[in-house]
Write a structure and sequence with these properties.
With 761 residues, this protein is mainly beta. It contains six helices and 37 strands.
């Protein structure tokens, strides 16, 4: 899995950073340093506490006060980032933000799907990607399938994590249900050293380190380096995983300019052995079906970002990046031979084999740049920008015939399944133009925000082994947005705000979807592809209306939301396995509901609670293929308008509290609950759904000394047995005729203990 990264590209970016770094500022350069701060750049929010601004676009370090943002404001608190240790971004978001749900279709917490208001961001090729994810202003949905490899997101270096709901056009493709923006630390906000060592159940061994500081005559230069190491045997059988991540960042802050050059790297080996038949889980919840299902991720991610004041109230920002991500997979799976194939393959008797080893390698490289100019007027701000994101992915796949062992792993034969080899190159290019106008009226009590973005995408597919997969696709779309915030009441440090917005965003079919869209020739994800019938791009229109407010000791928000997705792309099951099928457009899917949250403090007590009610439904009558479904007729099921999308809970509840005892002890607890969800393959909602999921966690932080903390945590403290995801399959093909229940589930982790030491001199 070693990769020789292009040294010339890294040298170019280093040279750009050095060239952009100015000489020490002169007195003349500092002439504008005394100008008033820009509109919206104040660091104090409504609630009487210091709070950072919310970015209105990926390239927007000035941002806006949360008072002026026309959508629900979600931010992970810095205290939660400090306490999260090495748990990962998915667990952090689920615990801290309303409406976020984890679905572990892969059976691994490191490879979870993150769902928000019924839209998801998944590391799995072929999953419906409805959230965009940004790291330091760079979109990190990968080139080949818009997947989000959460194991590559550096939560150990996070300074801010924000979730921006709705179909926000400013954040580009895939922002159907929202955008997640993570900004990493710099030497200016991390003038400290941190070392965390963690150990826990199931062989967990982990650690994080981070250090930073400022230097120069006026401390105008900053540096930060950090890393994370994680190893775990896994609580399920045959499920060890390991992660290695690092980030280095050099920064400059002058009176007129700001420069950040960062390089992120990762080398991860993940095993997530997927869903397991329910009858097997009744014997032992640690059992897996067939194994291994292994993924290797390697990342090299340098980026350069420059901002400069070019005149009174005018700022220019630009960014360039390279993102190289190599992915290799090895998946052992069951296989049913077919005597009819013998005439076509000579002496090969496929019935001699009952398993296959699917192996793939994807070398993908993204290169992009963006530029934005923003300015101030007497009433507010405006900004306009352009971006280009290009990508290349080389995908290779082959299937080796194999035999199952008693433990349901495989022994390879060295023979390839005839016709299984795939060689595909995908070249993608996405151009974007955007503009925003943000202003206040009515004595600064009413704020308006207008946004628009034009996207133009080109996807070219080249079959390396023939011509069957060749294709050339183009998509374009203008997507607008409008919103307002009205201050209804404001007294001292307390206020009540009415906010609302209507917005639109889009996503284009990925190369994976375009090459797996033929119902007459289904593929087995994430590996095999066929010819490419055209798919339409997805366009989502969303609306939100709500109230928020509070004071020093209490904050609250209540919002109604509604989203309709036209030509949504879904994966239709079409075979004995849980991952065989094809992609198709459906006319309309709808996600609507109510989101409530409260956060408060009283003395030494801090607490929060949230509730989300969600209807995620099909809006058209559909006939879908689902051969494993026990109630299917001729392998098909009938979906009616109002049937729920699989995998999405209708109700979610989150609550937590922490209290300080004395000067050195902090005690905390959190309760997370999700209602039932339907299985994938049961889009008609005919079968018993996956049961509700409730989990309680408790933790404590003990300050042993002024620079050494001990954290203790018990997750799933009642050892509740529940599942996070379900699908339909045919277990008897592997387990025998005694196994007839078609339900496959992904069981949640049982009770786990973790302890960590954090040294912070």
């Amino acid at each position: 899995m070693a990769r020789r990264y292009g040294g010339s590209r890294l040298s170019l970016l280093v040279a750009l950073w050095l060239a952009a770094t100015p000489a020490l500022p002169t007195e003349q350069d500092g002439a504008e340093a005394d100008r008033e701060p820009p509109h919206g750049a104040a660091s104090h929010g409504t609630f009487g506490e210091e709070i950072d601004v919310i970015g209105l676009a990926p390239l927007d370090h000035l941002g806006e006060s949360p008072d002026h943002v026309p959508w629900t404001v979600h931010r992970v608190a810095q205290e939660a980032l400090d306490l999260s240790a090495v748990s990962g971004v998915g667990a952090l978001l689920e615990a801290e933000l309303p409406g976020v749900h984890l679905s572990t279709a892969q059976g691994s917490a490191l490879q979870s799907d993150v769902l928000y208001r019924g839209f998801g961001a998944s590391p799995l090729l072929g999953a419906n990607q409805g959230l965009s994810v940004y790291e330091d202003g760079v979109r990190v949905n990968e080139v080949f399938g818009d997947v989000v490899a959460w194991d590559l997101v550096p939560t150990f270096a996070a300074e801010h994590v924000e979730l921006l709901p709705g179909a926000n056009p400013m954040f580009g493709l895939n922002t159907l249900g929202g955008a997640l923006a993570l900004n990493t630390r710099s030497g200016f906000d991390s003038e400290r050293f941190d070392l965390t060592l963690e150990a826990g159940s199931f062989g967990r061994r982990a650690g994080e380190v981070g250090a930073g500081g400022a230097f120069g005559p006026n401390d105008e230069y900053g540096w930060f380096v950090g890393g994370r190491s994680f190893e775990e045997d896994g609580w399920r059988d045959f499920s060890p995983s390991s992660m290695r991540q690092a980030l280095a960042k050099l920064s400059h802050r002058g009176e007129r300019e700001r420069i950040d050059f960062a390089v992120g790297v990762a080398d991860n080996d993940l095993i997530g052995n997927g869903v397991t038949p329910v009858e097997l889980l009744e014997v032992d919840r640690a059992e897996v079906f067939t194994h291994p299902d292994q993924t290797w991720n390697e990342l090299f991610f340098p980026r350069l970002r420059i901002g400069r004041t070019i005149g009174p109230g005018l700022e220019l920002e630009a960014q360039i990046y390279l993102r190289a991500n190599d992915v290799a997979t090895y998946n052992a799976d069951a296989f049913e031979g077919d005597d009819d194939d013998d005439d076509h393959h000579g002496d090969d008797d496929l019935d001699d084999f009952d398993a296959v080893n699917n192996q793939s390698r994807t070398e993908q490289e993204g290169l992009g740049a963006s530029i934005q100019i923003s300015g101030l007027t007497g009433s507010g701000r405006w900004l306009a920008g352009a971006s280009w994101d290009g990508g290349r992915a080389d995908f290779a796949f082959e299937t080796e015939l194999a035999s199952l062992t008693d433990s349901r792993t495989t022994i390879g034969s060295g023979m390839l399944l005839p016709g299984s080899e795939v060689g595909l190159r995908a070249d993608t290019g996405h151009a974007g133009l955007w503009a925003l106008r943000h202003w206040t009226t009515a004595g600064d009590r009413l704020t308006w925000t207008l946004q628009a973005r034009y996207n133009d995408s080109r996807i070219e597919l080249n079959d390396r082994l023939g011509t069957a997969l060749d294709g050339d696709h183009g998509f374009s779309r203008l997507v607008p947005s409008a919103g307002f915030v009205r201050e209804l009441r404001g007294t001292g440090n307390s206020s009540t705000l009415l906010f609302g917005n209507v917005s639109q965003s889009s996503r284009v079919p990925t190369p994976v979807e375009l090459t797996c869209a033929d119902p007459d020739d289904p593929c087995r994800l994430p590996n095999a592809f066929v010819a490419d019938p055209p798919l339409d791009q997805v366009v989502t229109t969303s609306a939100e209306l709500g109230f928020r407010g509070g004071g020093r000791s209490l904050r609250w928000s209540a919002a109604l939301f509604h989203s309709d997705s036209r030509d949504d792309i879904i994966f239709v099951s079409s075979g004995a396995g849980t991952s065989a099928g094809y992609f198709t457009n459906v006319d309309t899917t709808r996600r609507q509901g109510l989101e409530l949250w409260l956060r408060g403090s009283h003395g030494r007590l801090n607490w929060d609670a949230s509730c989300t009610l969600l209807d995620a439904t099909f809006q058209d009558r559909l006939t879908l293929s689902s051969p494993p479904h026990p109630l299917a007729e001729d392998g098909e099921i009938e979906v009616d308008p109002g049937d729920f999308l699989p995998g999405v809970p209708r109700r979610q509840f989150r609550a937590g509290a922490d209290v300080r005892i004395g000067d050195r002890v902090l005690l905390g607890a959190r309760l997370l609950g999700d209602s039932t969800r339907y299985l994938r393959g049961d889009e008609a909602n005919l079968l018993e759904p996956v049961g509700s999921a409730w989990r309680g966690d408790v933790w404590t932080r003990i300050e042993l000394t002024s620079s050494l903390d001990l954290d203790l945590e018990v997750s799933n403290v009642t050892d509740r047995e529940y599942a996070t995801f379900g699908a339909l399959g045919e277990p008897d093909e592997v387990l025998g005729d005694g196994y007839e229940d078609p339900r496959f589930l992904s069981p949640a982790e049982p009770r786990a203990f973790r302890a960590s030491l954090r040294f912070r001199p």
